[in-house]
Write a structure and sequence with these properties.
single chain; 593 residues; mainly beta; Immunoglobulin-like; 5 domains; nine-stranded mixed β-sheet; seven-stranded antiparallel β-sheet; 37% strand
Length: 593
């Protein structure tokens, strides 16, 4: 039998027993360091191992033990076994709370903000929930500690929510309850949220029908609305996609967030065959150029993605014109194309720009220099158009133009006859004297030059036509070409011509541009006219008066000395250059649009 000290047995029976020595169970020599020493019998007849049980109770029963504020003093260090928590608890009088031996923080105290509960993910019948499905609960924590929550629907629809953790900070914060299980039926479930502190909450979850099978008909996709950098999308901004449904059910069609915007739509296809899905846009574009966005479907079969181009409308911009006459940009034919009422540059034009207006124009050298250096009323034009007639280039003007470009301005420059010296001054000012070859003057007139095949260069393959393999013609003596381009420049037309210019090296350039410096160069400023005057002789830059769009004409000499030998596309090249200039001004120009 177990040996017990006689005194302990008698003391256990008499509640008022007082004894100054240690009490032992299963030992006649209890430790002097403890009031109670319980040991297992190792060398005896009774070898059954036993432990000790202290009072076991629920958390509610535990809390009822302290009936008045004064009880907390007497309860300091009191221990019980919490059957709700499945752990030992002890009372800490200094904190006036029960502490758990399973976690030093104890139970958290918090309340729920039921109005801010949200559910993430799309719940589909017969589709198992994943890490994408969860409920976000907003709480206000007034005491740090351990928390747990469950959310259960009544009646159950095959899934629930649960979460647990530790609040290590006080105040308003959010927790996430993971969904578990598989929704079994299409319905709206009401969940009751059971927190470990505070009152319950209710929230609803809608289970969608089984996912439909459908294909996106990409060729008929259309995007609607106006898109401008930093302007929020509205209900007018949408993508309309036609689809072919082979099996009815729930659908989701959306795009990823791209350059600050996204589109989405969801619903149920109640019929097979042809259907239309309208995706509504959200966000604000962060760029000043068109960009593709991918339309994605949740269909398990069929064509699941499409690409749609978001047409960004460029912000209002201004230009300045230096010079005069039909050889400059200050002529009716060219300026007509820049009007918002024409088809080239307008909110709904080939190049979509909110407004493109003239800031200033002049034939005065001093006025041009002052405006370039200081701005017009402090404002710099986004683009300067200078085909050098009506105001011949000077050293001071070339310096001011170079300074404007070096500050980020965009310059389209056309040389005046026999002005190699000023072309040299301009290019030296922009690129430095040691970075390129030399400017050289021609002594012939009315020759045509092959436009290089450059499918990825917008000045060649741009909004006003792909001009690769076509021709540009000059119409003046003394055109100026460059023997070697500055680094980072691209040749549009070589100065080589198989007629009288056959000894010029093909690397020499009569038309070229440089993106880094926002600079476009024409070796000659050609005269412009309406297309109604497009005879074999006359002017090579031809425009339509009613539309403002460019036209081509038969003009110039290429392989022989016969004038009118090839069709030239001067006007299209000029407007492609203006379009390039607008995009450069919008993305890396002087005004930081």
């Amino acid at each position: 039998m177990r040996k017990r000290s006689f005194f302990m047995l008698s003391c256990l029976c008499i509640s008022s027993c007082i004894y100054s020595q240690s009490i032992g169970i299963n030992t006649e020599n209890p430790s002097s360091l403890t009031d109670l020493d319980i040991q297992n019998i190792v060398n005896g007849n009774d070898t059954t191992l036993r432990g000790m049980k202290i009072p076991r109770m629920t958390e509610m029963q535990r809390d009822k033990m302290l009936k008045s504020p004064g009880d907390s003093l007497d309860a300091n260090s009191l221990m019980i076994f919490n059957i709700d928590e499945d752990c030992y608890n002890y009372y800490m009088q200094s904190e006036k709370e029960w502490r758990s031996l399973c976690g030093s923080l104890g139970k958290a105290v918090y309340s729920l903000d039921c109005s801010k509960t949200s559910v993430k993910g799309v719940f589909i019948e017969q589709n198992e929930t994943s890490e994408l499905h969860f409920a976000v609960i907003t709480v206000n924590v007034t005491k740090k500690g351990i928390w747990s929550m469950t959310a259960i629907a009544d009646p159950s629809n095959g899934y629930a929510f649960a979460g647990e953790g530790i609040f290590s900070n006080l105040g308003v914060q959010s927790v996430r309850l993971a969904a578990q299980g598989t929704p079994t039926a299409v319905k709206t479930d009401q969940f009751t949220l059971h927190p470990s502190s505070g009152a319950n909450c209710n929230f609803n979850v809608s289970v969608k029908p089984f996912i439909a099978n459908y294909s996106l008909l990409c060729g008929t996709s259309a995007i609607e609305g106006t898109y401008r950098k930093n302007v929020a999308l509205t209900a007018a901004n949408k993508i309309v996609v036609n689809v072919n449904v082979s099996a009815k059910g729930y659908y989701e069609v959306r795009t990823p967030v791209t350059n600050g915007v996204w589109f989405e739509s969801s619903g149920v296809f109640n019929a097979t065959g042809a259907n239309t899905v309208t995706l509504y846009g959200y966000g604000r574009p962060t760029v000043n150029f068109d960009f593709p966005i991918t339309v994605q479907s949740n269909s398990p079969d069929g064509n699941g993605t499409c690409s749609v181009t978001v047409p960004v409308q460029l912000p209002p911009m201004t230009y300045a014109i230096i010079g005069d006459s039909d050889y400059s940009w200050n002529c009716t034919y060219r300026k007509n194309s820049l009007l918002n009422t024409k088809q080239a540059f307008s909110p709904t034009g080939i190049v979509r720009i909110n407004n493109f207006t003239e800031l200033w124009r002049t034939t005065s050298e001093s006025t041009a220099i002052s405006n370039l250096n200081n701005g017009y009323n402090g404002v710099q034009p986004d683009i300067v158009l200078y085909f050098a007639y009506g105001l011949a280039p000077t050293t001071s003007l070339s310096t001011a133009l170079a300074n404007y470009v070096n500050k980020g301005g965009v310059l389209i420059y056309g040389s005046y006859d026999n002005t190699a010296t000023q072309v040299t001054n301009l290019i030296n000012g922009i690129f430095g004297s040691s970075s390129w070859g030399s400017a050289t003057q021609m002594s012939t007139d009315d020759y045509s030059y092959l436009i290089n095949t450059l499918p990825n260069v917008s000045i060649v393959n741009g909004p006003f036509g792909n001009l690769s393999g076509k021709y540009w013609g000059e119409d003046n003596f003394g055109s100026v070409y460059i023997t070697q381009l500055p680094p980072g420049s691209t040749q549009i037309c070589s100065a080589y011509n198989p007629n009288t210019h056959k000894n010029i090296h093909p690397d020499a350039s009569i038309i070229w541009y440089n993106d880094k410096k926002n600079f476009m160069y024409f070796g000659d400023s050609c005269a412009a006219a309406w297309d109604s005057s497009s005879s074999n002789d006359g002017w090579p830059s031809i425009y339509n008066q009613s539309t403002g769009l460019p036209k081509n004409k038969k003009y110039g000499r290429y392989a022989t000395t016969t004038k009118g030998e090839v069709y030239v596309h001067n006007a299209a090249l000029e407007l492609n250059a203006v379009a390039w200039a607008i995009y450069r001004a919008a993305t890396s120009g002087i005004n930081g649009l």
